[in-house]
Amino acid sequence: MMPTRDSDATALPRARLAELVDALVAQGWYVGEDFIPAELCAALHHELGAMADHEALEAAGIGRGQEHALRRDIRGDAIRWLDRESQARRGYLDAMAELQQELNRALFLGLFEYEAHFAHYPPGAFYRRHFDSFRGRANRVISTVGYLNPDWPEDGGGEMVIFAPDDPEREVARVRPEAGTFACFLSDSVPHEVLPTRLLRSSIAGWFRRNTSLGGLVDPAR
Predict the structure, then answer these.
(1) Which residues form the Fe2OG dioxygenase domain (predicted)?
(2) Nearest to 128, CA basis, from 75, 164, 176
(3) What Rg do the C-alpha atoms of the chain give, in angstroms?
(4) What share of the chain has pLDDT > 90, as a percent?
(5) Where are the domains of the chain?
(6) 120 phi and psi, to 5 degrees?
(7) CATH code, residues 14-62+71-210
């Protein structure tokens, strides 16, 4: 059952969903401006700013489980996992549920869950080139990034660089972190990085997951 929406203002543009699916099939990644409703972006940006002011974020690490480690030379953001405790967070998760339904309908991916966190990059922070999952080893299938900063300047830095799936050295897109822009790509095939930011940079990183098992445990925890 799909979650009940708090407002139609969180709905994704239907025509853009087909555009996104076609891009994933053709090249493994998609970037769309004005994809996330402006009202929703503004509410989420305000919430993340309040969390940062109240020190309610935690330093992000790399790796999962026993391999998790803090490496500020690789990644410098602070995060907080999304829950449904505010109307804005519910709205974003409902929008992603809508996208999940469309991806499963069009591509038969068997996506069963979405996990996401706020990402807060202070000036100077970056995230070195990486994949979001490793082929055959993880259950993250499709990665998403929603950007929240309004009026991001041309010289603000903090762009996400997307590299070609068949050539990790070849840049194919550079995404300015402007509110409303949404990026989506194959988690185990598309290398990407976040360039150093000159300003506070706010986004939501997320992953659509399949149900898998590891070490006898079904759907191991993140």
Answers:
(1) 107-210
(2) 75
(3) 17
(4) 79
(5) 14-62+71-210
(6) -120, 110
(7) 2.60.120.620
